[in-house]
Amino acid sequence: MSRDPRFDILFEPVAIGPVTAPNRFFQVPHASGATNAMPRVRAGLRGIKAEGGWGVVCTGACSIHPSCDDAPLPYATLWDEDDIRAHALMTDAVHEHGALAGVELFHGGGAVLNRATRLPPVSPSGKGWMATHTTFMSSLRPRAMDASDLRDLVRWQGEAARRAKRAGFDIVYVYAGMGYLPYEFLLPEYNERTDAYGGSIANRVRIVQEMLDATRDAVGGDVAVALRISLEELRGRPGESDETEAHEAIRLLSPHTDLLDVKMDSSPTDCGPSRFREEGAHEPVVDFVKSRTDKPVVGVGRFTSPDAMVSQIRRGVLDMVGAARPSIADPFLPRKIEEGREDEIRECIGCNMCIASWHEGVLVRCTQNPTFGEEWRRGWHPERARPAGSKDRVLIVGGGPAGLECALTLGRRGYAVTVAEAGRELGGRLLFEAALPGLSAWRRVVDYRLGRLAQMPTVEVFTESPLDADQILEFGFERVVIATGSHWARDLYSDLEVPVEASDHPAIFTPDDLAAGKAPAGKTVVFDFDGYVMGGLVAERLVEQGTDVTYITPAGGASVWTVNSNEQPYVHRRLEEAGVAVRTLERVAAFEGQTLTLAHIFTGSARTLDCDALVVVGARRSNTALFDELQARRAEWEGAGIKSVDLTGDALAPGAVAHAVYFGRGTAEALDGEPLEVFLRDAPFYTDRDLDRLIPKARIA
Ligand code: ADP
Ligand code: SF4
């Protein structure tokens, strides 16, 4: 197939200062969870994007000095010579496929707490960043920078830039975004300085100019200098000589950089969940940038549609289509457009499991792309899978995300696969979940897989086919995979904070009851000790249906885990708009109809509430009955020709869709290969200097 000519513009080369990107697809710096201690994993996950056609591939935020220590969040370093080799592995992997490699050098200032290096944090006027947000909370606060600190900062940037060049990077960033140090200079709320670095916008951008100039001095004429800048707050501030301070900042900084990478100010607005922020949501803030610069502009917007990308370029919003999440969900997105296969794009669903992984301090996981981060350590590829190890026929019971991913991988491997789904439609839990308020994009998990499976001659899919153990033993497939999902339990929550059996009162509901069409009547309490999205979504849905809803949780906020996925602020806003009363730090101790007994989670003090119906969003349990029966009848397997019965997805361990998809892939890989517990473990590079330092000490110890 060949490319649609209307997308030709996406494949034009773009000059970025002294270097040229082969096309307009720009994988902007994004967190991956892979630090310098995982150099091969990192090279694998960046290299795959270059293979997939991204013209520029950047590594994630890379600290320039030990006074910028973001632990426990994963971050890279270019602190000294010893860090160079780890990055060189990544730049080699990117260059191998003809792409440019970029590095986002950063100093976190008051937004990093130096928990590991224990150096005093610094900021323009001694102010911390978002002190109420768990990952920014600390018992230590930054000190105000003096003139020598400013000189040091500029010098550290230059030194790190020099190392970046030696590591093979083609584009070196100054990062003035998202609460990090140079950004803190841009905002008067953080910057109360009375010297040449505070006051007017010309003064507040000065440190950024100096860092850009120091970068250029360090990298010379053959590496490009890039600026990443957040514009949301500045756009809201009237300018002195131009429309807003954002306009002035771009005009002042443009001559010092080869590229402008523009973004929003905080993670929830920059990397907003699709539930609350649509594709292209940044445009109203960044649309002016090209009018104030002659340098190429890159920006993001969770773009997955090539038409939306072309429109951004044609309308003069961006020169290069930036992507973080769409490039994680589909590293081969550009290649698919280039080859006229855009219907095969695995579109990001905007669930933010990826950013949540970073907030949890681990390697990024993706709902749509289970291979992300597994390229090196497990040898998984987002588009291919190794050939089948046998001619065994595989029966997969259950057509939810896990069953479909397992079928897709096995189909790619060339296995003959039969999927049997009890329901009328494929998609499992997502049939209900994707119909909840704002989650329609989640349906893409099912649609992508069904689209691919339809092209596979060796895969057959049957709906309305509930299977029992007798049938499975009778069919005689050599391999059986059980992907029967999980269910929500009616359990309440004990004072030991453990799910315990609830009463069987008929006015107690679970999300599964709602999925089955049952509706609570009268005053309804949603009791959420799951903490992910379901509790908030159920409350929203019930309000839409005209129900009077109170949301109660033992946690400190609604959908508390979603602070990780950038959803929590929006969840609270949405519940407030919907008129849902939110009560925190309480658990439902008992419900016998009409009256709910609540207990404070810390003090135990009891109170009651009038209530007609209770929806419990708490524990989930795996549906293992079919698997258990087959295990109990193991003696019959041989006679039936069955070699293995595996459990996968939520039936293996109930969780977010990302885990179910991952288990589905893992089961398909393990059918004739390594089980999930076997993978390569990455290790940092040790230099001779390190070994001299480390080994004798280790011996003494
Ligand atoms: P997962 O996220 O692990 O894929 P889901 O709950 O989304 O789990 O999907 C499980 C699917 O398995 C559901 O669509 C359900 O109808 C189906 N299922 C459960 N038991 C059987 C069975 N005995 N035979 C066929 N399909 C089944
Ligand atoms: Fe998109 Fe979700 Fe994957 Fe992140 S985890 S890239 S939001 S599909």
Could you walk me through the main structural features you see in this protein, from its secondary elements to its overall organization?
The chain is an alpha/beta fold and 701 residues long. Helix content is 31%, strand content 18%. The chain contains 25 helices and 30 strands. The strands form eight sheets. It has an eight-stranded parallel barrel with strand order 3-4-6-9-10-11-12-13, surrounded by five helices. A hairpin with a 5-residue loop joins strand 19 (492-493) and strand 20. The protein is globular, with a radius of gyration of 27 Å. Bound molecules: adenosine-5'-diphosphate and iron/sulfur cluster (SF4). The site of adenosine-5'-diphosphate has 25 residues, from helix 15. Adenosine-5'-diphosphate binds at residues 397-403, 420-423, 428-429, 466-467, 483-486, 623, 626, 649-651, 660.
